[in-house]
Amino acid sequence: MTDFRPLSDQVVLLTGATSGIGLATARLLAGRGAKLILVARGAGDLDRLAAELPSAIAAPADVTDRDALRAAAQTGLDRWGRIDTWINDAGVAIYGTVEQVPLDDQRRLFETNYWGALHGMLEAVALHRRGLCRKIVTVGSQLSDRAMILQGPYSASKHALKAVTDALRMECREDGLDLSITLIKPGSVDTPYMEHARDFTGAAGTKNPPRAYAPEVVADAIAHACTRDARDLDVGGAGWLTAKAGRVAPQLTDLGMELLGRFLQTSDTPPRAGMRDNLWSSARGLRERSNQPGPPPRGGSTFLMAQKHPVAAAALLGAGALLLAAARPRR
């Protein structure tokens, strides 16, 4: 794999740039000197964000429209001549049972979460063939590996996104393309995800299973992936363990979700005034965090740190094993 440019010398296209993880990522990358092509549906918020950040331009587009997304990329190409990293972060969510959620809403969710990300990946591959792009980072979910009760359509879209990402990575290598593709899989993250989700649960609001991570933690994982050939990066060990448990003991994991899933995802706290779901139209407000009460979100992930620094993590585990062995009483 060819060496990557440092972030301070990269041109980055970022979708879903005006909310949650995307907004935290835009601010982090700008702080590290990257030039940004900011893509989202809300032109007003996008303009305000571009004015806030150095070396950033607004390129309004709905990722479900591939022609509009291509035009947004061209805006950046006209300005800087290349796109080093293409980040697919745009996403929408729905809470409710599979029976409750109207099929038109389920299809719309797939249009954004699956087709929108695929549009971005295909555009990035086309640019790579012209020597203009070297990296794809796509934000999936730990629900790519384990479906969640009350989030069936969302889980299905993330399963599909993981599958097509894996397939595209293999096909690019088979074709001899030197294009790096990373899938980021966050667990619970404290963003307006819940307030922007369409909700059929009948509760006052929805929430993340505790304890959530700050969006800056996921932004850090994305920034790390921009300069390294990582395959997957999980943010949060609990979701990763739940996915593994689902493979080892699927029926027991199902039972746990059936008993706790509704309690862990519904809330008595309604969305903030002015918030609206973003399934069919853009959200508003340039917000990174949710309005959820409770303990502050985690500011770091030990599991992510181990993935970022695998040699150091292996050394620490080895040292710990040696210390445990040395501490065992001799017979």
Topology, please?
Layout: E1 11-15, H1 20-31, E2 35-39, H2 43-52, E3 56-58, H3 66-80, E4 85-88, E5 94-95, H4 103-129, E6 135-139, H5 152-174, E7 180-186, H6 193-196, E8 198-199, E9 205-206, H7 215-226, E10 232-235, H8 237-248, H9 250-265, E11 266-267, H10 302-308, H11 310-327
Parallel strand pairs: 1-2, 1-4, 2-3, 4-6, 5-8, 6-7, 7-10
Antiparallel strand pairs: 9-11
Counting helices, strands and paired strands, the structural category is alpha/beta
Unreliable stretches: none
Distance between the termini: 52 Å
Spatially, the strands of the biggest sheet line up as: 3-2-1-4-6-7-10
Determine the CATH topology: Rossmann fold
**Quaternary class:** single chain
What pattern of helices and strands is seen along the backbone? Answer: EHEHEHEEHEHEHEEHEHHEHH
Q: Which CATH class applies here?
A: Alpha Beta
How big is the Rg? Answer: 20 Å
Largest sheet: 7 strands, parallel
